[in-house]
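Example 3.2
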Amino acid sequence: MIPEILTTIPSTDPTNLLRLRDSVYSTDLLITAVAHFEFFSWLDKNPAGIHVICTTLEIKQRPADVMLTLFKALELIEERDGLYYLTEQSKDYLVDASPWSLGPYFSSLKERPICDDMLRVLKTGKPANWGAKKDEKEWGVAMEEDEFPEGFDVHLFSHVLHDWDFSDVKLLLENSYRNLNPGGRIMIHDAHINAAKNGPLPVAEYSVLLMFASEGKCYSISEMEELLAGTGYSGIKYVPTVANRSVIIGEKW
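Structure, written as C-alpha cells:
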C-alpha cells in the first residue's frame, strides 16, 4: 500500500533487503572471472592496467571497469599507478598455484546459466536478455528522451543515468543544461561509486547488476563530477542519503 502522506517514513531500515536484490549478480561475476578467465592466476604473474586486461582477456571496457571496481571493493585487488595487483587474500585463495586455492570450489558452479550470460556480457559489452528482451525495442532506443521542456529551476534524475553509457549520459546532461533556467540545479539521485573507485561494496555489487542488465553501471563521484563540469555545471556537491544512495548536485550559472 502506498502511504497517503508521502513525507512519512517507515520505522525500519530497508538497506539490507535492497542489498540482497542489488547484489544478485556479483557472485556470478566472480565465478566467471575465476572459472573462465583464471583472472587472478593471470594477474598474479601479469600486473596490468585496464586496457591490457581488456586486450589480453578479450573483454570490453565497460564490464571490465565494473569487474575491477567490484574486486577492489572486495579487497581482492588493488590499484597502484594505473596497474592492478593481487592482495594477499586473493594470492592465498584465488591463485591456482596456492596450496589453499579455492578456485576449483568456485569453478564447480561455472555451468550456472547466469555465468554463461555473464561471460557474453564481458565479451560483447552488451546487456543480457534481462534488460533487452527480444520482443522489446533495443535498450537504447526504448530509453530515448525528447528535448527537455524549458522554464524549470530543477531537473531531477533519479535512478536514470545508471542505465546509460558515457556518451548517452553526456547527451542527457547537455539536454538538461540547455533547457534549465539560469541559476537552476540538476540533482542526480543514484547509487554512486566513491571517487577512488574501490567502494562502497554494496554499490559495486549493484553496478554488476546494471552492467549485466543495461548499457550502464554505477558511476563514480569523480566520473559524474567530470561529466557535469564538462557540460557546464559548477558548484558540484555530493550529498549521501539512505540505503547506499546519494545525490550529486550541479548548478547552472
